[in-house]
Stress responsive alpha-beta barrel domain-containing protein
Amino acid sequence: MVKHIVLFKLKDEVSADEKLAAMNNFKAAIEALPAKIPVIRKIEVGLNMNPGETWNIALYSEFDTLDDVKSYAVHPDHVAAGRLLATVKESRACVDYEL
């Protein structure tokens, strides 16, 4: 099993309302992906409740193999979900590890 964890930081200059809208749209789009991308074993998106922390969004997902992660990464529905953060995202951090 491969765990795929991604953190997103949104730009400080983006208003709180814009951030919240983008985060909620992203969460809904990502959590709809298992119905479209069968290699996803589990996926969830957490929105940080603590505004004093660096990262705004955490994505946690599980796949059978790293190749499955790679096919998910380029899937058109995943790419479209990622575009929802394009104008508000400052940075992204990712780790993939095997159990």
